[in-house]
Amino acid sequence: MLKVRLLARFEIKSDGKPVAITSRPAQSLFAFLILSAGTSHRREKLAGMLWPDSLEETARDNLRHALWRIRKSLPVSPNTEYLLADNLSLAFNAWAEYWLDVAELEKLSEAASTDELIAALSLYHGELLPGFYDEWVVLQREQINSVFEKKMARLMSLLEDQKRWLDILDWAESWIKLGQKPEPAYRALMSAHAAKGDRPRVAAIYERCVKSLKELGMEPSEQTKELYENLKSGKETSRAEPGSKPSVAKEVFSSIPVPLTSFIGRENELKEIARLLSTSRLLTLTGPGGVGKTRLAIQTAHDSIKKFRDGVFWVSFVGLSDGNLIPQEIAQSLNMREVSNVLLIETLKSYLKSKDILLVIDNCEHLIGACALYVEQLLAACPKLRILATSIEALGLFNETIWQVPSLPLPETQGSLSLKQLQGFASIKLFVERASVAKMGFALDERNAPSIAQICQRLDGIPLAIELAAARIKMLTVKEIAARLGDRFSLLTSGSRTAIPRHQTLRATIDWSYDLLTEPERILLRRLAVFTGGFTLEAAEAICSQGIKRSDILDLLGRLVDKSLVIVEADLETSATRYRLLETLRQYALEKLTGTEEAQSIRDQHLDFFVKLAEKAEANTFGAESVRYAKRRNQELDNTRAAMDWSIQSRQTIAAFRLAAAMSNFWFVGLNDIGFQRSSIGEWQGILNMALSWPEGLEHTAERAKALNASGFFYWAGMSPVSPRREIEEALSIGRELGDDAVVAQALCNLGLIESIQGNYAQARSLLQQGLDLFRELGSERKTEYLYAQIVLGDVAMHQDDLPEAQMLYEQCSATLREIHDGNFLAYVVRRLGQLAWHRGEIEKATELCKESLKLDLELGDERAVLACLSAFAGIALARGKVVLAAHHFGSVQALLHARAVRLLPTDQMEYERNVSSLRSQLDPATLEKAWTKGAEMTMERALEFALEEV
User: Fold this and answer.
1) Residue 71 half-sphere exposure toward CB, CA atoms < 13 A
2) Which residue among 5, 308, 434, 874 is the one 20 to 30 A from 815 at the CA level?
3) β-strand 2-5 against 17-18: which pairing, if any?
4) In what order do the strands lie in the sheet with 312-316?
């Protein structure tokens, strides 16, 4: 007979003789198979489970080798085949003659006698497979430990009922020596010593209990404290008569998990959960894996002990694979016995019917349907029962209150925050505390603060990810950790060996959620990874519906939202709904997408969608829709950039040219992210120049000509210091060669821009007029370009001091822009009209026009234009003779332009320089410097307030 021990050691004997399986992987495989005897496992599953970091073929080879070792070691018998194997699967033969210590413990019924419990529990000399750290072992070990603790708690109760005090002394001490800290054992010991009349020993046992729990940062439960006080005072404790059901409601307080690490932050969240629990009978905490649902539930359970007369009970479904066993898990938590010939769910209903109890059920997502069924039945039958559940998705029951667990708060910017302010963010505090445990002496300081803030931000404030990153401090600096987050799934793999398997690595955490999805949900999640910076339903339907009904995308997206994998964000400014993946989830899904055959086609569709969106926005540069499209393009900046990157990676030059041409004036219109503008315009131009240089991009096409023309706008807007005359002349040549008047007109206007910026106003005026005439001939479909050319022609007239011509052109543009309800270029034109009014000495009119321009620019979020308005107010102050005030304004404008690393547009810049030159001639250097410095200290908000107060 084969005799196998897996508790406290790995040991196999056959007819009393040792059987040696020398390879650790082979031992692990054998243990897994015998623990699930009778269950057939597919070979690829076993290979992936036991060798998760190996290539598939390598893992299969390892499996074959481990199987060979097992067969070589096991005794050969003509009548017994221990392993059942075919080409697809493996199983341990449940009908073979064998004995397993774990099975003896697990098969004990709830009605087992005291002696039966003692016989089975005597086999437990330690945890399952010590020294094995496979994910499946950790999970199985936790299950067996749970079974052992529940059986031991029941044995303590039975021994007390039977007044077997010596047995209690023996068994309770054995339980404690196993390294656990079981309160039921300490209570039983106190009762046993009290029964023997040894009250000093009662006090000593209580002190041992207090000290033991203190090591975990815990205090004894109210039940333990009450028992000690009663025994100390000589009061008799109420114990059930032999044979009656013991009162155990309070005893299960110790079943609430005791975390080994401190609980950080979440004060507001705990208050909100407590408030919701007071008004709802079913509260479900939802959120993505690793966000801290279980930890919040544990803390809530401990905080709620005094609020529920009949107790707080913890039920974990970790490792439970059969939803039909949910009633058994709940009954075990309650330490409640089954009644023969009665369905357990009915017994639970009867038991809980009058009880004032909080039942916490953790990790429901993989058994969501069964959980919902049993929870609904219990709540309907038990009016005082309240349930707190944790799950990736809600149970979906009527009157269920759903509360999304948020990530930890993050600092938006770290540069302007002090160390004390940074430490106030729970995400920062969590990283620092966990890192200080991993590396003695680690602390937040000025040098590491920026990197720590970056780590927390890039990990989306997810507690598990932050803890895994902090654990790496033993090997890497915080700066190195931050630099490696691009490959975060390889980096964040150092979780606690005692944690459940899916919390030991970041990848395993997300694998758990991903494996619970249906195949259509997985497909959509993978495809959504192509988006950066969020997406709309329209975009998801257009890009991700390949092989899926377009009408099904909304439903599938809703399911991913329900399962906490997609975040919904309402945009109050545009009244539109946007969706996004947390960056960690997006990187995971992108890995999954990259490994599929559809990756290229999905990226191509993403590129096509955003090229068309950019072109549609370009067509609406002017008009009532201009602001809406400018904001939409600003929202989609990350997606547009990703699309441009893909066009270059896949060498799709036509798409790259179309996108560059359509986006060219975006850098002027509606762009409020100066930081992106400063850091990315050069990169954008570099990418475009690369595409223009490729052989496949050299063909004379309208798309190439439009892309070349885009360089002219960059130059005028001050975003490129190098004159693009050569590029524009090539665009003009291509346009004439193709007979494309729109390209020719645009090139003429761009050449006019170049001449204007270089001070050649006569040539500029001639070229702009030629372009304007061509646009007029092309009709209404080129109204955008016509208006733009007319505005620049007005600028040239102003530079030539032809003020009546400039006034006429600006007024015509203003009338048209107001007629079509444009908000973008109207602000620029109104500012120019204000400048003309100032030149005529109409100061009040100039002030009102500049205020109108400022209002429009603030609505658009165009910071450069706002600074141009501040510069105009400075010029008005100078015209009124308030030279010190003008110096204040100009000082703030210069400092703010420098901080944002931008220049004013050419006409605004010329006006600024002319006025500053006049100011210097009117004010002595010392007074000028003092006023200028005072203005330079102002923030944008204060500078605006100051200017508007004066005007």
Assistant:
1) 12
2) 874
3) unpaired
4) 312-316, 358-362, 386-391, 282-286, 401-404
Pairing verdict, β 401-404 and 282-286 = parallel
Tokens of 40: 């057939």
Cα(504)–Cα(260) distance, integer angstroms: 15
Task: Give the long-range contacts of residues 483-487, CB within 8 A, separation 24 or more.
Answer: 485/455, 485/458, 485/459
Check residue 572 and give its pLDDT. 59
Distance CA 135, CA 151 (A): 25
Contact of 782 with 585, CB cutoff 8 Å: no
pLDDT of residue 116: 87
Tokens 């041409």 belong to residue: 661
Checking if the pLDDT of 882 tops 80, the result is yes
**Angstrom distance (rounded) from CA 410 to CA 641:** 26
Two tokens, residue 853: 């321009």
The structural domains of the chain, with segments of one domain joined by +, span 2-101, 108-255, 267-292+311-404, 419-507, 854-950
Predicted confidence at residue 235, as pLDDT, reads: 64
Tens of pLDDT, residue by residue over 828-878, are 999 999 999 988 889 999 999 999 999 988 887 788 889 999 999 999 999
What CATH number labels 108-255? 1.25.40.10
* Strand residues in 433-495 grouped as ranges (E): none
Count CB neighbours of 908 within 10 A. Answer: 23
Residues contacting 718, CB < 8 A, separation 6+ = 902, 903, 904, 905, 906, 909
CATH code for 2-101? Answer: 1.10.10.10
Q: Which tens digits make up the pLDDT trace of 401-436?
A: 999 998 888 887 555 677 888 888 888 888 888 888
Cα R_g (the chain), whole angstroms: 37
Helix, strand, or coil (residue 933): helix
So what CATH class is 267-292+311-404? Answer: alpha beta
